[in-house]
Design a protein that fits this description.
The complex is a heterodimer of chains A (229) and B (324).
Chain A (H helix, E strand, L loop, with lengths): L17 E2 L4 E6 L3 H4 L4 H8 L7 H23 L4 E6 L9 H6 L23 E5 L8 H9 L4 E7 L1 H14 L3 E10 L3 H10 L5 E4 L1 H8 L8 E2 L1
Parallel strand pairs in A: 2-3, 2-5, 3-4, 5-6, 6-7
Antiparallel strand pairs in A: 1-8
Chain B lengths: L1 E5 L2 E3 L7 E5 L3 E2 L13 H4 L4 E2 L2 H13 L4 E4 L9 H11 L2 E8 L8 H4 L2 H13 L9 E8 L6 H17 L3 E5 L13 H11 L6 E3 L8 H9 L3 E4 L10 H13 L6 E3 L6 H4 L10 H12 L4 H16 L1 E2 L1
Parallel strand pairs in B: 3-6, 6-7, 7-8, 8-9, 9-10, 10-11, 11-12
Antiparallel strand pairs in B: 1-2, 1-13, 4-5
Classes of the chains: A alpha/beta (229), B alpha/beta (324).
Chain lengths: 229, 324
């Protein structure tokens, strides 16, 4: 069955976003070992149940996403943009959420599954936010970090497109932020769920761009220059 | 004397017959010079535009011919797999006229020389594909193209559009356009038609040389009417791609546009560019979808047979006709 998303047939065209290092943050969502380690977390459970093949597409996408996040990090660092990392983990056992418990992802911030793939790359100006919900805004600390930095725009990458990324993006636009989702720096559980989620996230002050496009926008511009997306 | 320039030579307009004015017969997006701008997950998704099987192309166009089709425009431009000699062989073997396209597709597909050369040099190159032939052959183009990837016409794409416009002025060739579907919701009216027109008018090109492509991806009938009022063509060229719009909605729009007096501005196609859109075994609707499925829908929806013939044949003759 064809998946249709006709809502934007009846909405106004979305204006350009003005991206400046001082009003934009790069959010790398949940790139932690639970979601990204082929021997741990999601992958481990799937293998134990004999259904590892079901996640081949996810890990294929993840490989591409990781490469692209690395490319974007280079540009982001060069422009002095802050990076906010999220991870799905409780800070204390009493904060374990019903959601985490129901899924069987009872991950504490000190557990191996909570370890960020980018741990060595966390700079002093960055933030690492532990949350127990799908979306970044499920932790009050996330929006606090945005406010401190006077962030207006989020460049969003990471996992899982149809769950955490989607949740963060929708909550962000609800709160008045503008969002650029880097489509090929995200991964969905399947290609289809990723594509469907992405197609549904082209609404209002939310845009989807590829890594290559963003790098090309930034090409040749000085680090403090405005980038129009 | 006006002719339609096909890959097998010039034909009289009377010989054109039913013509789908936006298709791909041979293309390969993996060859795109700036492919890195395209979503890299395409390689994982396997949704690149790749049609390289010549024998299969002949087979598909034979089906199209059997369904009543007479001609197609292959809008694949230089730089991402256009193959003039293959098009000529396919045309000969299938009996379907193929009109080839010069100019430029969207930024990821623009040849690298377009950045280095002046607009004047690009104009000369475009004209040479019309007068002498494509890619070292004597097979000529019969249409030129401007493809816009971003939500605005700027930078390299604007430069290429200017070159295409000046080439159109010198040759009389029509300009067919592409606005990227993913950006469509960011563009007022869902289509860059008015922006294309603005540049063309600045260059002195008449609106009746502009074919606005992909208008049926995110249509607004008010906006389409304005384009027609300005004298442009509007092209419903993703017929069958219902993730954009239901075919039934396309029929509604066409009926209304005809009622408003814009019949002579309408062209049609199906933009088959991926194997899963074309090959039946992959769920594709083929080049025949328009004639075998959509035409009956139009008739059932109350569009007169004569009007259907106008959109499928008379309008393409006027759009594609050039002075020999």
């Amino acid at each position: 069955m064809v998946r249709r998303t006709p809502f934007t047939l009846a909405t106004r065209a979305v204006p350009r976003l003005a991206i400046r290092p001082e009003n934009t943050a790069f959010v790398i969502q949940d790139m932690q070992r639970y979601f990204a380690d082929p021997e741990l977390g999601l992958a481990q459970t799937a293998a134990a149940r004999g259904v590892a093949r079901e996640f081949h597409s996810y890990f294929e996408q993840l490989d591409v996403a990781r490469d692209n996040i690395d490319l974007l990090m280079g540009e982001v660092r060069a422009r002095g943009m802050p990076v906010l990392f999220t991870r799905w983990a409780y800070t204390e056992p009493r904060y374990l959420s019903p959601l985490q418990r129901s899924i069987g992802a009872e991950i504490g911030m000190d557990d191996p599954e909570a370890e960020l793939l980018y741990s060595p790359d966390v700079d002093a100006g960055d933030a690492v936010i532990s949350k127990t919900g799908l979306g970044a805004f499920s932790s009050d600390a996330f929006e606090e970090e945005l406010r401190i930095r006077k962030v207006e725009n989020l460049i969003l990458a990471g996992v899982v497109t149809e769950f955490g990324i989607r949740s963060t993006a929708l909550a962000a636009i609800d709160r008045g932020y503008r969002v650029i989702i880097v489509g090929d720096a995200c991964a969905g559980i399947t290609l289809e769920t990723h594509r469907h989620a992405i197609s549904e996230l082209t609404i209002g002050t939310m845009k989807v761009r590829s890594t290559g496009e963003i790098l090309r926008y930034a090409e040749g511009l000085d680090h403090e220059d405005l980038i129009l997306v | 004397m006006a002719v339609v320039r096909t890959v097998l030579g010039d034909i009289s307009p009377d010989s054109l017959g039913n013509c789908q004015t936006h298709e791909h017969i041979i293309c390969d997006q993996r060859k795109a010079p700036f492919a890195q701008i395209i979503d890299r997950a395409r390689s994982v998704k396997k949704t690149y535009m790749i049609l390289t099987d010549e024998e299969r192309a002949i087979e598909e166009l034979k089906k199209y011919r059997a369904a009543g089709g007479s001609a197609v425009v292959d809008v694949t431009t230089h730089g991402w797999g256009r193959d003039p000699e293959a098009m000529a062989r396919i045309s000969r073997a299938s009996g379907v006229h193929i009109v080839a396209t010069g100019g430029f597709y969207t930024e990821p597909h623009i040849p690298t020389f377009a950045e280095e050369r002046s607009i004047g040099e690009l104009v000369e190159w475009i004209i040479s594909e019309f007068e002498t032939g494509m890619d070292g052959t004597d097979i000529k183009v019969g249409l030129i193209k401007s493809g816009i990837y971003h939500g605005r016409i700027e930078n390299l794409e604007r430069k290429c559009l200017r070159a295409v416009a000046r080439a159109s002025l010198e040759t009389g060739l029509a300009i067919t356009t592409h606005t990227s579907g993913a950006r469509r919701y960011e563009v007022p009216g869902g289509n860059l038609g008015m922006y294309h027109l603005e540049v063309l008018l600045q260059e002195g090109v008449s609106p009746h040389r502009l074919i606005n492509g992909h208008v049926d991806e995110r249509p607004d009938i008010g906006f389409l009417s304005e384009l027609c009022e300005m004298g442009c063509y509007i092209q419903f060229d993703v017929i069958g791609k219902e993730h954009w719009l239901l075919d039934a909605t396309r029929v509604d729009l066409l009926k209304e546009l005809i009622a408003r007096g814009y019949l002579d501005h309408i062209l049609m196609g199906t933009d088959r560019c991926r194997q899963h859109e074309l090959y039946e075994e992959l769920g594709g609707k083929g080049y025949t979808h328009l004639l075998e499925t959509f035409v009956p829908m139009m008739k059932e929806g109350g569009i007169a047979e004569g009007d259907i013939w106008t959109m499928l044949s008379e309008n393409p003759v006027r759009a594609l006709g050039v002075e020999a």
